[in-house]
Each structure stands twice: as structure tokens, then as C-alpha cells.
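Table S2 (continued). Query chain:
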Amino acid sequence: MYGHLIAVEIRVECRAHQRVNLDGFALDQYWLECLNAKPVECWSAIEQNRVILDYFFQNVPHHRILPLDHFLRGLDSRAVAALFEPVLELAMRSAEQWTREPKIMIAGLVGRTAQAVEEAQVARGLGYHAGLLSLAALKGASEDELIAHAQTVAREIPLVGFYLQPAVGGLVLPVSFWRRFAAIENVAAIKVAPFNRYRTLDVVRGVVEADAADRITLYTGNDDHIILDLVTPFTVVANGRKHTVRIKGGLLGHWSVWVKRAVELLERIHAAVAKNEVSAELLAFDAQVTDCNAAIFDAANDFHGVIAGCHEILRRQGLLEGIWCLDPSETLGPGQKQEIDRVCAAYPQLNDDAFVRANLQRWLS
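Corresponding output:
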């Protein structure tokens, strides 16, 4: 699975060649898995989905980040290349239309070194400030080769690391990799998404052992553990001292849907952490959110319907006409529709259906 990410940060000034300090930013993840991908050969099909960007930007007050993810799966390199620059241009134009405030823009970078470098150059040329670096295309590479790849791309643009879970194409990356990756001067943040407690701790340990915790900001991509990742103080021992690190926000596919509720929940989490008052009620939301994510991401079928599941929520709200994916064979998994029906009925407090209904006609006009 190759991930492309675009992010918008409001009220943060940065130039493309400066280090991007993402500390304390709340990356509220709203995947741009929302393009009507049926007629992908036509740029107008992307333009027609501006309603999705309207939905996302409507939810972002002037002090937040808006990341938009779009997984370009099952396409040859020519198709990916054809979509990469137009999607980044659309996100940049949309961000500029919504606000003139200073922004940070982050673009996803994929492929082997030559492709990732080219994409970094395109992103930088469009005004993006950092790149989310996927290593999925480097299966079988040694740790030295992975680090050399990251160092090469980091010369083009500041990096956000990406630990993608192996179930959807990611690599298993040990503490030693994260220690060396965190030592790269131009790394600004890491998205931690292995869907695994042990591997999540590997990232924390690597950053701390590299003495980079003050420079590198951690974001959860663990959609199966969102709230607990955000409220947990990660205390590890390195270099003879205890260090406590916190995950500051999320780069989450689950937050591509029910965005208004996600923003509200994140604000509540940040307030609770600041007061050191994490309630049992807040902790109970973790299981509810995870239950919803299992249905939307199709965990029962090894995530086969992960993108289609996000599309299905947006389709039900009227934000998409269908659940088409860039890969025509990709659709809901067996029983997934029924699971989505179940969680929608069980947890109405987690959806933003009323908000979408109130704004949909304006977005469509």
C-alpha cells in the first residue's frame, strides 16, 4: 500500500527550506480517500470532488492542521505520477481559498529513491514544507539501504517518518532503524502506525535514544488505539535517564470520516491531558472508537475494505456518489456493510451526520 498525504497547518509560518517544527500541532487526520476514483483519467473528476475538501476545511478552526490522505493503490507508476501533482495542486489551491493564514503543507512521498526524490522536488516546488515518507516500496532492503534512502530524500525536503503496519504493506522496523532515522537532522515528525504496542514502543525508544525527542514530534496512526495513544505518557529509560514522551496528535485514516466529532474529541483529550485529569468516561471512548474503526476498516477481512469502508460512510452522508476505489476490485468486504450498520446505530454520538446535513447543499452548490 502506497500512501500519499497532504496536510494543511494554520497559523504556522515556515519556508520550504527551513526545518519544520511540528511539536504540539494536532494533526487531525482526514484522509483524502474521498476522490471519486471511477473516472480517474479525467482531472475534472478530481475537481468535482471539491465538496470533500469543503467538508474537511469547514471543520478546521484557524489554529489546527488538516491532513488529507489518499492511498494510490493498484496503479502503475505512470498513473500515480499523473495524479500526484494535480492532487497536490488542488489541495494547495483549496487551502489558499479557505484562509490566507500561514500554513504548513505536507505531501506523501512513495516509491524507491528516484521516485521519492522526484516527488519531494515536485512537492517543494508547489510550496509544500515536508514529506510523509513511505518505505513500502523498499521491501527486502537492508537497514543501511533504508537509512540511505531517507537521508537522500531528506536533502530535498523535511521528512515525516511513517511506520505503516505490515498487514497493509508496511515493513517491520526495529529500534535500531528508528534510532538512526531520528538522528537525521531534517526529520521533523513520525507517524506511528504499526497497529502493534511493541512496535509503537520501538519508535518511542528510537527517538529517545537518538536524543531527538525535543526535535521530533510523534503522531499516532494506530487507528485501533487512538485515544489511549493520545492520553498515555510514554516513559522510557535511555542513556541512564528516564524520558517521558507524548504522542501529540493523529494522522489517522479513521479521521477521514466523522471529522467534526474527531476534532471535538481531540480537543477534549488535549484539555484532559493538560489538566492531568483523564476520566474513565474518556477512556471508555477508546473501545467505542476502536469498534467503529474495526467496521470501517474491515478488520475482520484483513483490511481488504479499508478504503471502501471510509467511502461508504461518506456516501451515506451524501459526500460521495459511490464507494469506487482506484483499484476496481477493491470494495466492501464480506459482512462489512452489516458491521458499519451496527456501529452507526450503536454509537450515534461519534458521527457528524447532522453537521453534514446542515452544510451539504452549500458545499454542493
